[in-house]
Write a structure and sequence with these properties.
By secondary structure, the protein is α/β, with parallel strands linked by helices. It has a single domain, classed as DHBP synthase (Alpha-Beta Complex). It contains seven helices and eleven strands. Strands 1, 2, 3, 4, 5, 6, 7, 8, 9, 10 and 11 form an eleven-stranded mixed sheet that branches. Helix 1 crosses helix 5. The longest helix has 11 residues. The chain is globular, with a radius of gyration of 16 Å. The termini are far apart. The relative contact order is 0.25.
Length: 203
């Protein structure tokens, strides 16, 4: 496969590649991400293969605005406060999924991981695309995340349709928090702390 190297001004081309079902790698505010459009099962399978990722491990669904979250997840008042105060940003929340979410998106689970990046480029891509993506760190499963396009090219050049140039300011993967129980549970630590989450949860 021929991999195209793009810059952030070419966000419309990135959105077009995603719409066509291609895999694209690009910088986010946390780490380099690798993405496909969420509603294409064939693209999902290709992403699994390229990352060498276990089938039982679901990809986060990344949305372009907060309103989209309620299209895919069931949200209560406490969860809504977390969304309003901590998103967009380096946070991935786990919620109960709605029945319209394809089982492959959640790896057969009844919950869904959702993220909304506050990276300007990512938001432009999602707005132009008009629908969510499956986005995860640009690495082989179990390996360290790539933090710029040069590191990503060493792994994925020739395996994806495009790689977007750029660095990642935070350089730490997003915090993942499970909000499906009576108390929040951190699944992966990041820049957003459990103390911040708990303070809002208990308001």
């Amino acid at each position: 496969m021929k991999t195209v190297i793009l810059n952030k001004k070419e966000f419309k081309q990135v959105a077009s590649f995603l719409f066509q079902g291609c895999i694209v790698v690009f910088p986010t505010e946390t780490v380099m991400g690798i993405a496909v459009v969420a509603d294409n099962y064939d693209s999902y399978k290709q992403l699994i293969d390229v990352k060498n990722r276990p089938l039982e491990k679901a990809f986060p669904l990344v949305v372009g605005n907060k309103k989209q979250i309620s299209n895919y997840a069931i949200i209560n008042d406490k969860q809504k406060r977390i969304i309003e105060k901590l998103m967009p940003g380096p946070l991935t929340i786990v919620l109960k999924k709605k029945n319209n979410v394809p089982s492959y998106v959640t790896a057969g689970k009844d919950s869904i991981a959702i993220r909304m990046s506050d990276d300007e480029f990512v938001l432009k891509v999602l707005k132009d695309l008009g629908k969510p993506i499956l986005l995860t760190s640009a690495n082989l499963s179990g390996e360290p995340s790539s933090l710029n396009d040069e590191e990503a090219q060493k792994i994925f050049y020739g395996k994806v349709r495009a790689i977007v140039q750029g660095d990642c300011p935070i350089q730490i993967p997003s915090t993942i928090v499970d909000l499906t129980a009576t108390e929040p549970k951190i699944l992966r630590e990041g820049i957003v702390s459990i103390d911040q989450i708990n303070e809002i949860w208990r308001e």
